[in-house]
Amino acid sequence: MAKRIVNVGGIKMGDGSVSIQSMTNTKTEDIDGTLSQICALAKAGCHIVRCSVPDEKSAIALKEIVENSPVPIIADIHFSHKLAIMSADAGVSKIRINPGNIGGADKAKYLADYLKERGIALRIGVNGGSLDERHKSKPLAVAMKDSALEYVSVLEKCNFYDTVISAKSSDVKVMINAYRLLDKACYYPLHLGVTEAGLYHTGIVKSSIGIGSLLCDGIGDTVRVSLSDDPVKEVEAAKDILKACGKYGEPYCEIIACPTCARTNIEVKSLAEQVEKMCEDVRKPLKVAVMGCVVNGIGESQGANLGVAGGKDKSAIFVDGSYVETVDNKDILTTLKKYITEYESK
Ligand code: SF4
Known about the structure:
- The chain has two domains: about 5-245, Dihydropteroate synthase-like (TIM Barrel), CATH 3.20.20.20; about 255-345, 2-Layer Sandwich (Sulfite Reductase Hemoprotein, domain 1), CATH 3.30.413.
- It has helices at about 30-45, 55-70, 80-90, 105-120, 140-155, 170-185, 200-215, 230-245, 270-280, 295-300, 330-345; strands spanning about 5-10, 10-15, 20-25, 50, 75, 95, 120-125, 165-170, 190, 220-225, 255, 285-290, 305-310, 315-320, 320-330.
- Strands 8-7-6-5-4-3-10-9 form an eight-stranded parallel sheet. Strands 11-12-13-14-15 form a five-stranded mixed sheet, with helices on both faces.
- Helix 1 packs across helix 2, helix 1 packs parallel to helix 8 (about 230-245) and helix 5 runs parallel beside helix 6 (about 170-185).
- A hairpin with a 2-residue loop joins strand 14 and strand 15 (about 320-330).
- By secondary structure, it is of the alpha/beta class.
- It binds iron/sulfur cluster (SF4).
- Iron/sulfur cluster binds next to helix 10.
């Protein structure tokens, strides 16, 4: 169903785009440290940054953080609607609450009225590990969906509709099912994530499956990859997931490279790395194939804007699917560079 569009500090959720979020892991009261991390995240391509607000000092620090941040800030609140009110006063663009621990429907209603007056969005963040007792007898994905919708209906009774919903679980299958149920049941934008996904490699695999499956089905409006690591790596991983699912909103260069085998004639890995580096600033849709031999190389190169199929001493170059020339292997990189420069200037 068509989505409601929710505006989070100028970033639209529900309009078909998919925004990237991350979260600072500095102490929020450390204003300089937090702003420095927010700037690093924004530089890496993060559209919105969330900061935890565990206490009043953090809520007070938010004002200066919001004023100096290059991207919209979300306040992450647990247990205290008072901190949510303080964060709203600090000028954040969205508040994230877990309805299971905010202190009941009355407090959620009070908060909704307060945010509505100020045009601030709200994320209902239901978490598989902290559900209301009343839902616990149901299958987990159903319980998460029902819990989120219950709070959505409280907000709707206050005529509050600038709501984004998340239903995160550390179990990838539960998370996928919960979001699929929510996508069918409501028209609010969905914030996707696998919670507590873990260390770098495991976390990326879990997030790619969970977030990626949903994005490929057309579900999801904003994403956060959770890693027990530098949050900049979360943003890099989120960008790669969006690219793989065809949801990355900007033109970029995609490198296809073969896995190499006994037929490989050229240094595929180092060549692909050099091409990737050479193309990192390309702002046009460009697909470059670096293939180790002619067996599969010709087919893949023909499907790319630019391709090389490695031979023993000389390699074949393809442009827009057609063979154009054969070059000495030592000249592959400079030849690719020449064609990329020509392509960019078209
Ligand atoms: S493209 Fe050629 S070298 Fe590369 S994996 Fe396939 S067969 Fe092997």
